[in-house]
């Protein structure tokens, strides 16, 4: 059994989690729990603007993953790598991600390359 505080602590385990829950809710999806993360699947609402219209499959905020469709294993593993990056980088993740995105774009982004690579920048 998990008490109310435990459930809340699991629901918001990282500072970026509320952003992910907000994106998921504004996409008209209900969360499911998978591998210690919350997954929202939707191609409507905010997910349509952020993901589907830009050709992205999923986006991660802390322990919350919003996906345009139910994620294939390869995509799920990629997003779980981002979860580990959030855990290691803490509050620095989002500013660092956007800073590196401006400099490198998506394809050469160091955190994206790490998430796509069999060798990891951060071990568990
Ligand atoms: Zn990625």
Outline the secondary-structure elements.
Elements: H1 4-11, H2 17-25, E1 32-34, E2 37-41, H3 45-50, E3 58-61, E4 64-67, H4 73-89, H5 93-104, H6 110-116
Parallel strand pairs: 2-4
Antiparallel strand pairs: 1-2, 3-4
Helix pairs in contact: 4-6
This protein binds zinc ion (ZN).
Report on this structure:
- By secondary structure, the protein is an alpha+beta fold.
- The protein has one domain.
- It is built from six helices and four strands.
- The chain has helices at residues 4-11, 17-25, 45-50, 73-89, 93-104, 110-116; strands at residues 32-34, 37-41, 58-61, 64-67.
- The protein has a four-stranded mixed β-sheet, with helices on both faces.
- A hairpin with a 2-residue loop joins strand 3 and strand 4 (64-67).
- It is globular, with a radius of gyration of 14 Å.
- The protein starts with a helix and ends in an 8-residue tail after the last helix.
- The protein binds zinc ion.
- Zinc ion binds next to helix 4 and helix 6.
């Amino acid at each position: 059994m998990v008490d109310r505080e435990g459930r809340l602590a699991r629901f918001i385990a990282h500072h970026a989690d509320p952003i992910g829950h907000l994106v998921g809710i504004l996409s008209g999806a209900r969360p499911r729990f998978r591998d210690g993360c919350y997954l929202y699947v939707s191609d409507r609402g905010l997910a349509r603007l952020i993901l589907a219209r830009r050709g992205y499959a999923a986006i991660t905020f802390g322990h919350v993953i919003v996906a345009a469709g139910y994620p294939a294993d390869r995509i799920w593993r990629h997003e779980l790598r981002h979860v580990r990056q959030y855990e290691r980088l803490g509050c620095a993740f989002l500013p660092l991600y956007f800073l590196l995105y401006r400099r490198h774009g998506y394809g050469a982004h160091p955190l994206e390359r790490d998430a796509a690579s069999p060798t990891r920048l951060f071990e568990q």
